């Protein structure tokens, strides 16, 4: 008698076991500049101050101050991190963080075009365009300050949790093929964003449908049996919507391609960029079909405006697109003066109380191997919490990612050699990190693309008390998914933008 070996499911390690950088642990240029400047001032004090006690205090004190500013924890961050946040928050409050939409007073021109209005704080200037996309049209946004071009489509998830392990891994491999194609292709899309929007649904919708459309002449025992079955079903109901946002960075090559498209179609240069984006998305949709991810519909200006409007006001149905235009996408009122949440209100709100929104960024991805469904506690197993999970993926070609991996591996080997010569104890985090670098090198050698990830989560509630409760729930669910969150206090009006379909939140 023989037994068949059980094939072990593949696991994934996203976060680093031990971050590395040239100086310190992933320190920014500004942090290194602060340390160098403080050390320089301390050295000047040692050379120029005549009194010995003051000379020693300056020589030692200024470098210690620089190290404390960069390294000392303060309210879950550092003094360096809080400096710019507090400065920009005070400037925002001083200038007036209360936004009021001028859509009511803007009016409409005689030719039917609507007068443009300003966007809320944190959004920046946006030019709305449209391009044909198959039988429909798609909205293309030109972000002037960020110099990017974005467009969104609604997709239908493949239902990974309903499949066995082999099918799940096959789906992930096919999605990896999509990322590889986008990163290594000759197209202009350099960034993708996945949006998972979770909203409460009417728990009595099925019962109302049965009451309206049911057969009154059915046997009594059948109706009683169905009523008993309905009573046994959970009354908590949610609707899950998924969106894919493509982003192109404005470069000289993209401008030339847009001009060529504009001359070929007889449109303006901006409309030529919209045509280029529609062409890129058509190719991506074909790859999505190969990955078993169905495209439900492209988001035109009305649908995209309705989606953005529903993110500010979850009472607004996403599919309610009547009278939805690009200037109706923004809320009627927005208040960013509260340091721990953002307040927004629309004119169609059910009550006069504004909605409260709080955004957190995923500070740490899983440091331990996880399966395909590691985000299930956050995406599915958190009922009665209105939330949006956004993951932006900045793609880079395989050869660039391999060069970066080789540089990192060279630094790791040099550090291991120095540690061995100094007879230091081997750090187990270094061993785990070396194995992770080797695994990444094998994936890149097989043709995988380099992907830089950043994630944000926005939680919405009717009151600050309910928002605090939902934030605790989301933090617990993130812990089950091996994630660490950090709430973007004093900058929620900017962090909230990262969960809108604009593909923002990651530095290029």
From TrEMBL:
Keyword field: Membrane, Transmembrane, Transmembrane helix
* InterPro entries, A to Z: SCO6880-like
Transmembrane regions listed in the UniProt entry: 32-50
Q: Which domain of life is it from?
A: Bacteria
Show the NCBIfam families listed in the entry: SCO6880_fam
What name goes with this protein? Answer: Integral membrane protein
What organism, scientifically named, is this protein from?
Streptomyces thermolineatus
